[in-house]
C-alpha cells in the first residue's frame, strides 16, 4: 500500500521530529532505519543515515552548506516543502517481519521501496523559462529522506517507510528549483504497484508462498485472514469511517480512503518496545499463528506445509510480463481507445504481481509499441 501527504512549511519541525522518532523500533538499532536516496542527494553528497540538521535545511528549501546557500522556495507557511510517500507492507508481511524478527523481510521491503522511488525519480520535473515562455524540464533527480518505522498508531505491527521527497530538483543548468510534483502525486497508485510487485518477487525468491487477493494485493500464505484481522486495528478504524459514508475499500476512491486515513489518525504515543513485543507475542499465541522459522524454505500453518519451488529466471519473468501486458491492453481497450502509459503499466503490474518486475513489463511494452497492439 502507498499513501501520500503534502508537507507545507509549517510542518517542518513537527514532521522532522516524527520521522526521526523510532525509539520503539527494533531495527533502528542497526543504523539502517533512515537513509538518503536519489540522484539529487548524491549531487549534494548526502549518503547514509539522514542527518537532522540537513533534513530541516532541505525541508526549508536551503541547498548547500556554503556562504552561497540560497532559498529555492517561497517562505509562506502554506508553501509545499515536499511529499511524504508512505510505503506500507501487507499486514502478514509486517507480522512475519516484526513478531518473528525476520530480517530477510526487512531487507526485501527496503529494496522494494528503493525500486519504487527510482521509478518516481525518472519522472522528476521542474519548470523553466525559454524565451519568456514557461516550459517543463525532466530533471530525473530527487532528494529523498527515508525513515523506516515498525508500528501503527494503535501499536500494531506495521512495517512502513516514510519517503520524504524534497520540493527540490536540479535543472540542466545546475540551478535548484521547486519540483513539479503534481505528476508524482498522480503516480501514487502506480508507484504502489511497483512496490508491491517488487516485494512479492523478493518474498518468493526468499522462499515464501504468497496468497493473491484483489487489486494486486497479496498476503503471506501461512497467515490466515482471521489472524491478520487480529492485528489490524487501524484498518478496522478506516473501514468504519468509510462505512459512515456508505463506502467500502472497494468502492471508495483513493482520495476518499486518504481522507478516512487522516481523519482516524491519532497522535502516536511512545511505548517501550519490550511491552509492545510482549503484547504481540501474546496475541499471536491466542490466534494460533505459527511463524516461519526456517528461512522461508518451508512454511507451516496449522500443520500444513508449503514448499516453494518457484524459479524466477529471466525467461519466466518475460513470459509473465507478456501475459500481463496482453491482459492490460485487452482490459483497457474494452473501455477506452486511448490509454495513458502509467495506467497501462499499473494494470499490467497488478496482473503480474510476484511474477514479473517493472523493467520486464516496460521492455515488453517497448516491443509492443514497435510492433503495434497485439490482436485480441
> Could you say which overall geometry the principal axes of the C-alpha atoms support?
globular
**Gap between N and C termini, in Å?**
31 Å
Q: Which regions contain 5 or more consecutive residues with pLDDT less than 50?
A: 65-74, 296-311
- Assembly form of the protein: single chain
Largest sheet: 5 strands, antiparallel
Overall tally of structural domains: 2
Sheet/helix structural class: alpha+beta
Annotation field: number of helices: 14
Q: Walk across the major sheet and give the strand order.
A: 1-5-9-8-2
Portion in strands: 15-25%
Number of strands: 15
Order of helices and strands: EHEHHEEEHHEEEEEEHHEEHHHHEEHHH
**Helix amount:** 40-55%
Summarize model confidence as the mean pLDDT: 80
What key attributes describe this structure?
376 residues, alpha+beta, globular
Describe the protein in words.
This protein has two domains: 2-307, no CATH class; 314-371. The longest helix is centred in the C-terminal third of the chain and has 20 residues, at 314-333. Strand 14 and strand 15 form a beta hairpin. It contains 14 helices and 15 strands. The protein has a five-stranded antiparallel β-sheet with strand order 1-5-9-8-2, with helices on both faces. The protein has a two-stranded antiparallel ribbon with strand order 3-4. The chain is globular and about 70 Å long. Helix content is 42%, strand content 19%. It is an alpha+beta fold and 376 residues long.
Amino acid at each position: 500500500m502507498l499513501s501520500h501527504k503534502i508537507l507545507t512549511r509549517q510542518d517542518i519541525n513537527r514532521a522532522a521530529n516524527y520521522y526521526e522518532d523510532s525509539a520503539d523500533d527494533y531495527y533502528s538499532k542497526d543504523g539502517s532505519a533512515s537513509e538518503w536516496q536519489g540522484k539529487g542527494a548524491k549531487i549534494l553528497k548526502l549518503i547514509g543515515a539522514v542527518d537532522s540538521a540537513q533534513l530541516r535545511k532541505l525541508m526549508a528549501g536551503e541547498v548547500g552548506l556554503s556562504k552561497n546557500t540560497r532559498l529555492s522556495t517561497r517562505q509562506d507557511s502554506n508553501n509545499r516543502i515536499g511529499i511524504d510517500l508512505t510505503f506500507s507492507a501487507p499486514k502478514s508481511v509486517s507480522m512475519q517481519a516484526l513478531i518473528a524478527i525476520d530480517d530477510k523481510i526487512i531487507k526485501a521491503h527496503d529494496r522494494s521501496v528503493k525500486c519504487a522511488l527510482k521509478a518516481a525519480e525518472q519522472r522528476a520535473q521542474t519548470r523553466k523559462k525559454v524565451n519568456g515562455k514557461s516550459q517543463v524540464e525532466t530533471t530525473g533527480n530527487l532528494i529523498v529522506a527515508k525513515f523506516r518505522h515498525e508500528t501503527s498508531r494503535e501499536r500494531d505491527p506495521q512495517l512502513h517507510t516514510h519517503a520524504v521527497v524534497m520540493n527540490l530538483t536540479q535543472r540542466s543548468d545546475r540551478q535548484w528549483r521547486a519540483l513539479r510534483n503534481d505528476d508524482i502525486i498522480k503516480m501514487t497508485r502506480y508507484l504502489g504497484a511497483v512496490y508491491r510487485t517488487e516485494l512479492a518477487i523478493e518474498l518468493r525468491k526468499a522462499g515464501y508462498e504468497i496468497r493473491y487477493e484483489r487489486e494486486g494485493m497479496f498476503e503471506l500464505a501461512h497467515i490466515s485472514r482471521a489472524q491478520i484481522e487480529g492485528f489490524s486495528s487501524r484498518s478496522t478504524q478506516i473501514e468504519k469511517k468509510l462505512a459512515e459514508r456508505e463506502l467500502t475499500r472497494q468502492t471508495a476512491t483513493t482520495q476518499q480512503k486518504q481522507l478516512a486515513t487522516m481523519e482516524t489518525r491519532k497522535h502516536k504515543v511512545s511505548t517501550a518496545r519490550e511491552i509492545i513485543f510482549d503484547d504481540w507475542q501474546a496475541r499471536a499465541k491466542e490466534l494460533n499463528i505459527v511463524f516461519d522459522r526456517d528461512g522461508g524454505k518451508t512454511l507451516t500453518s496449522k500443520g500444513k506445509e508449503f514448499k516453494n519451488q518457484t524459479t524466477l529466471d529471466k525467461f519466466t519473468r518475460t513470459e509473465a510480463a507478456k501475459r500481463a501486458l496482453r491482459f492490460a491492453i485487452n482490459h483497457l481497450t474494452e473501455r477506452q481507445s486511448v490509454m495513458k502509459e502509467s495506467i497501462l503499466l499499473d494494470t499490467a503490474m497488478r496482473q503480474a504481481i510476484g511474477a514479473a518486475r517493472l523493467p520486464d513489463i516496460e521492455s515488453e511494452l517497448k516491443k509492443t509499441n514497435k510492433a503495434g497492439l497485439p490482436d485480441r
